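so my prof wants the structure for this chain in the tokens format not the other one, which i didnt know existed until like an hour ago. anyway here's the sequence
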Amino acid sequence: MRITGVYFFLVLNIALCLPNHALGAAAPGGETPQAGTWTSTNVQHAYGLPDTKPKQKGKLTVNADGLTFTGKSSAYTIPRSSIIAVSSGNERVELWGMKGRILRMAIPNGGGLAAAGVMHHKVNMLTVEFNDVRAGYHGAVFYLSASDAERILASFSQMPPTHHEAPATLQETPVQACLNSAVNPRSVLVAAPVWDHTEVPAAYRALVYEHIMDRMQSLDGIGHVYREGEDNRQYGCPERAIRISIASFKQGSQVKRAVMGPVGFFVGTTQMSFNANITDVSGQLNVTEQLKATVRGESESKNVADSVAKKLAKRYSVAVKNFEKVRTVNSTDTARLR
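here's what i got, hopefully its the right format
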């Protein structure tokens, strides 16, 4: 592939000016641990932590009491006894987002494809799964350096294990779970997705669940949206339930798409297919939706998660409306026969 002199040096300078962590090397991050406490100072909250805005930057502090994220406008602590699992992973993404793409497009004679080979960096993700004060499941994802993620994992591995009671029996149908209990109208239980049929990174699992929760809570006419394991004594039993089973998952690659040029539009995408079963306490509503999500974007994990959530919320609304129409017609017909 031929690149003219000035553009060759442009590409070369881009490669040489990339920070170490952009080329895949671990960057030093946290403060020196003192008295059992360790802090990572350069952390970004991706999604999922309660009362914390996405993309907020701050620091993560780990000690014997648990994990605390402190940002500019908020702070949230996850008690050690509430943490279910801590895991790390990464994905490689293009540098500078859309600005980087425009820069590559401006390089003639195929130079943009050559630049794509170096204009990327590795994003490291830390996923923390935990239960809130009502025993509801949460998954929070943070971006940080690889060395900091490893240090945090090591911190938890060195701490004494805590005892976690078995989660609520959410494999029961709403009918079984709500016998002899008051039902909260228009409420819905969102069970944690089942991943038995395919391997899915922890960050994707957490982001899918959290985006589904947010999309469901924003629906018109929706009641309380229950998390998996949530104590229902305050609100009453959920009227409906959504259970998701992931059938297939394929993680995409922004770098692969960028290097391949126009062909990359059709390859290297993040793909997910799943089945969603919607039921209610009457036993009359029982609908299974088969959905697929294919996503291209600057943040693969977040985009595919929200695509899944958006489609599911829409299908849920349609299924419930159709069910209510049929039930209304049946009730009217029954009344006429009387």
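also thought this was worth mentioning. The helical segments are 5-17, 97-105, 111-116, 146-158, 174-177, 202-217, 254-259, 300-337.
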